[in-house]
Amino acid sequence: MNMQWYVFALVDTPPNGRLGRGLKGPVRARPIAGAFAIVERRADVPPAELGSLRAHQAVVSRLATAAPAILPVRFGTLMEEDALEEALNERDEEIAEAFALVRHRAQFTWRRDQPSASRLPKTPTASGSPGGGAAYLQQAAKAANTPPPPVFSLLRDRLHVFVVRERFQPATNGMPDTLYQLIEKTAIDRYRAMADALTLRTAGVTVSGPWAPFAFAPELL
Fold first, then answer.
1. Alpha helices in 32-161 (DSSP H)
2. 35 partner at 20 to 30 Å CA-CA among 19, 45, 84, 202?
């Protein structure tokens, strides 16, 4: 069976020493397009189950503490070496800009406790059906421009001094409204103290982090 590369992340500088294990085998750093792809040799895509998801997350979290800048790659990315190089070649400038945004920074994630009703219709079975594909795309575009709910606006007002960049994700089926904030790693303790105080005074929201900057990494692969 042909072996391929399972990709965890791109980093700007490979961590010193051994990179440890991935899902099953050793993790390696492959130089490519002005970056280093953190990969593991693998024959197939891992099952999307809790154990694999946790193992993937553990590798990314470990890298995030060791590398100045990290761009996490979505779970399940398995590629031939030639395809990996082709996907990233001539994208040095885009990768460099992405690294510049996340370098020495971490992500915190805010969610409303109760998921809102989805702002999107169910995916149509046929684009020609009533309220089908065109309507879905129109409502999807509208959801993408939806402003955060008032409870998130309050959080933004209180925490803006720490925030380098943020991204709001409106609720979808099974997922609540989510606000992602990118902050300097040097501000983590102060941010967390204020965030914890805000959760005590603000009903209906939770915060988690610090995480690797999943929400601020472009989809390169």
1. 50-66, 81-88, 92-102, 133-144, 150-159
2. 45
Strands 78-79 and 178-184: unpaired
Instruction: Report helix, strand or coil for 202.
Output: coil
**Best CATH choice for the domain 105-216 from the list 1.25.40, 1.10.357, 3.30.70, 3.30.200:** 3.30.70
Tokens of 7: 């990709």
pLDDT band at 131 (very low <50, low <70, confident <90, very high): very low
Cβ atoms of 213 and 184 closer than 8 Å: no
Q: Are 11 and 88 in contact (CB under 8 A)?
A: no
Domain assignments of the chain as residue spans, ordered by start: 4-102, 105-216
Contact 110, 210 (CB under 8 A): no
Whole-number Cα distances in Å, 75 to 70, 72, 190: 15, 9, 31
Listing DSSP states for 112-130 in one string gives: ESSPPPPSSPPPPS-TTST
pLDDT in tens, 18-45: 788 999 999 999 999 889 999 999 999 9
Which of 106, 108, 107 is CA-nearest to residue 195? 108
Closest to 148 in 3D by CA, of 134, 168, 118: 168
